Amino acid sequence: MTIREIAKQNGVAASTVSLVLNNKPGVRKEVREKIIAVLKENGYSIRENAPKAAMHGEIKFIRYLSATHSRERNEDFFVGILNGAEYRAHQLGLHFGLNSMTAEQLPDMFRSLEAQPDLIGVIFLASEISDTQMTYLLNFSRPIVTLDMPLQLEHYPLNIINMDNSGGIFNAVQNFCKMGHRSIGFLRGETEIGGLYARYVAFKNAMHMLDLEINPDYILRIDPQYEIAVQQMGEHLQKLSKLPTAFVAANDIIASGCLRALQQAGIRVPEDVSIIGFDDGIMSTFLSPSLTTLRVNRARLGELAVERLTALNAVPDDVVIKSTISVLLVERESVCNIL
Question: Taking the model in full, what pTM does it have?
């Protein structure tokens, strides 16, 4: 029987029989099995797919450290991403290397990586990068995926994976609205690494979208280091004659420090002031009250970076992809319903 005759007998198109014969996807399992049987009865051989060659090589993870780097500001975030990336790389049978780099070390590092024959690609944690260092990333000819790229630098033609700062902050503000809060402030990072500035911009946009007034007095600059955050929030509290009923914080460290400062000033959380953080770091569950926050799946962020790198290694001239990973509101004890 010809291909057309087999197709007619089985009530399918000739192209469907061709897909089955060439072992291509796009045919339902039960239809495929039926056609395979008829093809074999008529002396046809089903094409076997060549086994995929195992990938070998190294993925290099570079953590860029600015001159003002402080481990406390994003260590929890970094470790989560690193663990996910390393786990996925080992799943794929790849070697995995880590380097922490300052601005002075970047040129030599990238020159070395350009010449590394077994390099699959580079994962670059860009939380602390500035415009000055972007040239090294743009001129790098091997596959590179950047993580936690600051909003101000997202316009560059680089593969980027960020968390959904905009959607997360909108969910936080909307959640406050549903619980009766109309006077909402923002605890903004004094040092805005990674997504912190994007979260501030997202807060302003969310307030406008939900028709809520922004009080400039309730936008407080707080350093994302716990002890400094406690001190700075205490100073803000001495100056403010009135507080909003709720604060969204740029990250959990800021939220935690401010929560402590409020308690030291005799202000109850959440009865007097509610707080939502961002990141769902380890400290969130140890606070009293435990912190309502926005969870970032840091391990998955690292895994996705490895998967994107392997895809780029296979197709180096693929289009640039800028993607975001969703965040989840985790409700604990630091938010009060005032309706």
Answer: 0.81
